[in-house]
Amino acid sequence: MHPKILDVIENDVCTACGACAAVCPVGAITIDKKAQIRDPNNLELYEKGAAPSVCEDCYACGNVCPVIHGYVEDELYNVKQFFGARSSIPGQDGGVTSAILKSLLDKGEIDCVVGITRNENWETELVLMTEPSQVDQTAGTKYTYDSVISALREPFKDYDRIAVVGVPCQAHGARLIFENINDKIAVIIGLFCMESFHHETMLNDIIPKVLGLDIEQVVKMDFAKGKFWAYTKDGEGHSVKIPTVAEYARNPCHNCCDYTAVHADISIGSVGAPDGWNSVLIRTDIGEKYFKKASKDLEIMENPEPGMDLIKKLLNMKHEKNEPHYLEACEKFSFEAGGIK
């Protein structure tokens, strides 16, 4: 296995974005809470027959790893447009992500997209969507982590125009795949993210112990106004201050220096826009093209409040908190990582 990937895994800074698993030609990497190297002595795991080692030293994994590639100090440098938007589709806030995906699938602009569904226990499942009607089942933010990019391994074989939706590390991995390995990614939609949580931590600790709630009664989770919120079926909102839950975040989140998904074509979040709206950052010509194709289904708000100032405040908070941790991790690597540029 490429030693760079080994360093990332062994130092517990793997984001589990899944990019390495998506592109490995022999399936030498699997994703759970982090990337894992398959046992070369277990012949059931081979996809290309028996060999002295599963890995073929192609270096694809190291070329698509966000941690190895590094971070951008000014993650707003490539923003071409900023505005608010909302749709009539039920969603986390303005439903913009779902509206874009439904429109692009309906118009035949993309072939598929991987999404995340959940049941009443907030147990999640990755699903491949090829029809607009399938998008509704993935609406709403889960705040627990699934390796969306790893699920692209099979779609890469069958489809030519794939949309990717993910948090910053996943958008980063998708960008590196597009630039280095596979150009079948048509558009990357990034979601603002301060941190995420393992499923069992959310289900067994945060909801029942920190908030004192029954997970089956929770219908929505959100980060807003300095607090983590869980809304229940009776319409009530229950909250704790963000630092109370921050300690439960996945360890790689404490090393991440990207809040707004700088490597996406379109970035979408709730911060910076009024309640019921999404903030939208158009970052690339591709993003502009695809957003225009879907914009007729959206209501647009120019200069939303509280606006970019609040987005900058939160991304600066994330950078100030996490940059030292990431740079400390880089010092442990046996190679020179991308660092913060």
UniProtKB/TrEMBL annotation:
Pfam hit, one: Fer4_7
Cofactor(s) this protein requires: FAD
Alphabetized UniProt keyword annotations: Iron, Iron-sulfur, Metal-binding, Oxidoreductase
Domain 4Fe-4S ferredoxin-type: from-to ranges: 5-34
Keyword Metal-binding assigned: yes
GO molecular function, one term: oxidoreductase activity, acting on CH or CH2 groups, with an iron-sulfur protein as acceptor
Domain of life: Archaea
PANTHER family to which the protein is assigned, alphabetical: 7-HYDROXYMETHYL CHLOROPHYLL A REDUCTASE, CHLOROPLASTIC (PTHR31332), FORMATE DEHYDROGENASE SUBUNIT BETA (PTHR31332:SF6)
Designated name of the protein: Coenzyme F420 hydrogenase/dehydrogenase beta subunit domain protein
Organism (species): Methanohalobium evestigatum (strain ATCC BAA-1072 / DSM 3721 / NBRC 107634 / OCM 161 / Z-7303)
